[in-house]
Each structure stands twice: as structure tokens, then as C-alpha cells.
Amino acid sequence: MAISMFDPGRDEPEALCVCKETQVACGSNNRTYDSVCQMNQELADSGFPDTLYLKHWGPCRSVPWIISGPQDVGSSLGQGLALDCEVKGYPIPSIHWEFKADDGTSRMLPSDDLYMAVQVRGGPEPYMATSWVQIVSLRHKDTGTYTCVATNTEGVVRASAQKKEKLRLNEEYMEKARESDVQKKKELKRDEELRKKKREGPMHFASIESSTETVYTSRTVRRTK
């Protein structure tokens, strides 16, 4: 560790600590540090000397772990949907997606489905990778379990999201909404018929002629000649 002196404005001298080693370090606790100085500072703060030491230069090797996995998201049929997954580890994990449908069939995504797309990029932090599954238009056949799978030489980790229950709840809501619309239309039609009868007046006469008599009828009067 080097100490440099500078004198801004010729006031009191100040010391600025600069770590000579800027490369990443792996501690004996299998934790990756930005520098060996950061590791030494943690050791000093702990008050337990010789409990932490430099294992090797470079990041510690580790199995992948999920920083942010896919979450259940409710969406209407025909709408778009996106699932994301953030993983970390060293070596940097690769990500792929698996899908298990309600009928038990499984496949890798995106397969040959034109309504699905899978994207993978590095970041947003060192030793991380991020992936998305995008569904252009949600269909009944898309209900099932979506699994993010992260793999490196140290191991494999999975995180899943279930889309079945969310969609069923949404379909029940849509069915109730359709039934409500039908009921409202019936009520509007009935109200319109009542208004029409009121416009025609309180008395409605119909003349029924025959060879022997004429009958006059109304809502309140019935008289035979």
C-alpha cells in the first residue's frame, strides 16, 4: 500500500491511501474482493488476525446463484408477457430456459415457436448474466412452468415460475365479465321496452270484428255489445 502526499491550497497536508494491487482477490473465506486491500481492511475491522488470507488472485470459483428469478405474472390471453432471470457466479454462468406444459410435455425455449423469444446479455454487475423470455401473444398452450437454468463448471441452479393459476383466475374473471355484460344488455332492452309502452299512452285499444259482434279491449276496460 502506498501513501501519497498532496497539499491543496497549501493548508494542512493530507494523506491519501492508494492500493498498489488493483486486481480482484479471492479470500480464504471463498469471497471475492475488489482488491487485496479491501480484504485486509475487512480483516482489520474484524479484530481477528490471521483468520482471513489471500487464497489466490482473481475471483473465487463458485456455483451459480440466482440474484433475481422469474416471478408469477398475471396476463390476459392475447397480451404480451416477459420473464427475467439474473444470475451470478464464476466462471460466469450460461443461461437457458425450459418449459413444462400442463399436459406434461417439456421443451427448451424458444424452440421453433414464433411467438416466443429468448435474450441473454452480460451484467448488470461483474460476473453476472441476465436473460429474458418474451411471449408475444399469450395462448392457452403457453400455460405451465417456466424454469431459468444457470450453469457453469461448478454446478447448476434453477428457478421456476408457474403461470397456470394466474391464467385460470384471469379466465374466470373474464367469464364473469362477459356474463355481466349479457345481463346488462338484457336489462337495457327491458327498460327500452317499458319506455316505449309509456310513450304509447295508458290505454291501448284493439278492435276485433266478427260477423256477430265487435269486441273492444283495453288494460282497464272490457265491454261487449
From TrEMBL:
One of its GO terms (biological process) is regulation of signal transduction. Keywords: Secreted, Signal. InterPro entries: Ig-like_dom, Ig-like_dom_sf, Ig-like_fold, Ig_sub, Ig_sub2, IGFBP_rP_mac25, Kazal_dom, Kazal_dom_sf. Residues 173-195 have a biased composition (Basic and acidic residues). Its main location: secreted. It is found in: Secreted. It holds the Pfam family Ig_3. Residues 64-170 form the Ig-like domain. One of its GO terms (cellular component) is extracellular region. Residues 173-225 are annotated as: Disordered. Residues 208-219 have a biased composition (Polar residues). GO terms for molecular function: insulin-like growth factor binding. Residues 26-62 form the Kazal-like domain. This is Uncharacterized protein.
